[in-house]
Amino acid sequence: MNREITISFLSLVILATLPLINNPVYAGETLKDILTKRYQEEKDICAVVKEAIRKGINAKEVTKICIEMGHNACLVVRCAVEGKGNLEQIIIGALEAGATPDVFSRCTLDAGAEAREIARILEPELSPAEIGLAGGSSGGGLISPSSF
Q: Which of 33, 50, 74, 128 could form a disulfide with 29 if both were Cys (CB 3.0 to 4.6 A apart)?
């Protein structure tokens, strides 16, 4: 009885570790290396982004790395959204890669994302801008309607 339990346990451990052995991330390749290799084979960054997200790779990392590799930010974001990636992860990845909110918000809308959802995600990510008058000092005083 104990022998059967031991054999079952060892079999379970072996089966559980097999995916890790075949996973290139654990074989020393970085995600950037994997995406670069797939792009060289595929020649279509959109297909690479969608495939990576479909395989369960973090959408933030895929988006960020592909933009940092020099691919068009709008295209990468749009493909990530079309690939059913997590919208929040996609937006944060684009921000971290240096894409501007106006660029990727337009692209996420083009891909079918909801404007309210984009705004909800962007709100805590963007810092408020301070606006002052030219010259650095605030004016003051009353404005009389007769001076118009």
A: 33
* Residue 103 near residue 78 (C-beta atoms within 8 A): no
3-state SS string for the chain:
CHHHHHHHHHHHHHHHHHHHHHCCCCCCCCHHHHHHHHHHHHCCHHHHHHHHHHCCCCHHHHHHHHHHCCCCHHHHHHHHHHCCCCHHHHHHHHHHCCCCHHHHHHHHHHCCCCHHHHHHHHHHHCCCCCCCCCCCCCCCCCCCHHHC
97-102, Cβ contacts within 8 angstroms, sequence gap of 24 or more: 97/63, 97/64, 97/65, 97/67, 97/68, 97/73, 98/67, 98/68, 99/67, 99/73, 101/126
Note the pLDDT of residue 103.
Answer: 81
pTM for this entry: 0.64
pLDDT digits (tens, 9 = 90+) for 126-147: 555 555 555 555 555 544 444 4
Domain ranges of the chain: 16-126
The per-residue pLDDT for range 7-26, each reduced to its tens digit, is 765 555 565 554 544 444 44
